[in-house]
Amino acid sequence: MTDTAHHDRDDEDWLAAQFALGLLEGDALSQAARRMRTDRIFASQVNSWQVQLSDLDSEFTEVTPPASVKRAVTTRLFGAEPSMLSRLWNSVPLWRGVAALGVVAAVAVSLNNPVYTDPDGLRDAQLITALFAPGGEVAFITRFDAERAVLRVNRVSGEAEPGRDLELWFAPTPTAAPMSMGVVPEQQVYEIELTPELVELMTTNAHFGVSDEPEGGSTTGAPSGPVLVVADILAI
Amino acid sequence: MTAEHIETLIGRVVLKDRAAFVELYDLTSAKLFGVCLRVLKDRAEAEEAVQEAFVRIWKNAASYKPGGFSPISWMVAIARNHSIDRLRKQRGGHVEIDEAVQIPDSGPGPEAQLIASDTGRRVTTCLDGLPEDRASAVRGAYLEGYSYAELAERHAVPLNTMKTWLRRSLLALRDCLGGGKMEEV
To answer: Are B101 and A33 a contacting pair at CB < 8 A?
Structure first.
């Protein structure tokens, strides 16, 4: 390595360190911020510094915030004090019960919604979900076949580690607790038969996710391992 | 509060599980509030900052990837970045960087993986190898969110000297983390 190259490398690393520390200001900051989005090598240098420096996190002392902060956060995210219904709706044990009963409770709520409730009013839209994460190995595409009441799942890439399984999850609304759609089998494309109740829930309001679970799937009724990908149902 | 448990909760938050979010808040809010308070040094400001941090955690949980940051450090980084952002904005003359100081992508980049696998050395250990005032300046920048001007004032050195201190210290840290000898700073 020449001296100049060595010097350049130091400059780059130093810039990344300053960005990670929050020391940059003004134009230097704007430029570095832009590079964070466009320059993968630079972004990974910043990331590397952030991970290394996080070793100092143990030196931050814990201070319990007042209860008003928690109320403010939950109100901002979930609206006013949740009603009994929405609390039940979000309770995982209930979801497990509901799933076992064929999602009876969910029907009552969504009965009036046509299958294709999308804001653009598209007719004959296909409901698909593209599950992938930048840089991630796991990628899935799901397509809802309304006529046959099945969900087609295509595992585009990725497989579970030995002794682990991938599990597909479905949540009918942005805030609903996820319900298991089962452990992902070995074949690349497979179909899940949907109950009429589940068919009703296949809307653009819903989302899917895939998590990494112990062999045989989560035993808790909710994702117990890392969630690898998550994506909304889209109408195209 | 184990890392695995926090990671599981973040995973459930990705799927918008509110109960998991509330548990995550209960387990980690004291740490995050501590971070905001340390950087902002003002209770009311810190309360708003920690609120915003948790809103971002709810919205951006999907960007957490296991393997780089410990899950709590990922959350600390969100709180810290946001607090520094607020701090600089308060003082004026600061460009809007809400977008800029992005929630760090928690997957370790190739560099981080390299360093992590190369040596078991850690920043805290390597900082001990620096002269005390240099180590204190690095800590001041990370833990207190001090700017160059503030650090220069606190250490009673000219601004450019402080920049040189930090540059040399950070590059020496890098070499130490990478397994090399600490050069004279």
So the answer is: yes
pLDDT reading at B43 higher than 60: yes
Whether A56 sits inside 8 A of B143 (CB atoms) is: yes
Q: What is the DSSP string of A49-96?
A: HHHHHGGGGGGSPP-PPPHHHHHHHHHHHH-SS--HHHHHHT-HHHHH
Least confident of A4-8, A155-159, B126-130: A4-8
**What does pTM read for this prediction?**
0.61
Read off the pLDDT of residues A74-89 as tens digits, 9 standing for 90 and up: 888 887 544 443 444 4
Residues of chain B with C-beta less than 8 angstroms from the C-beta of A178: 12, 15-17
**Chain B CB within 8 Å of residue A85 CB:** no
The ipTM estimated for the assembled molecules is 0.85
Q: How many domains does chain B fold into?
A: 2
| Domain-embedded: residue B17 | yes
Q: Is residue B126 one of the residues assigned to a domain?
A: yes
- Residue B138 sits in which domain range? 108-180
Do B81 and B130 have their domain in common? Answer: no
- How distant is the alpha carbon of residue B35 from its chain centre? 9
B102 in the same domain as B112: no
Restricting to A residues 8-27, those with a Cβ less than 8 Å away from any Cβ of B are 10, 13-14, 17-18, 21-23, 25-26
* Final residue belonging to a domain, choices B107, B137, B157: B107
Q: Mean pLDDT, chain A, as a whole number?
A: 78
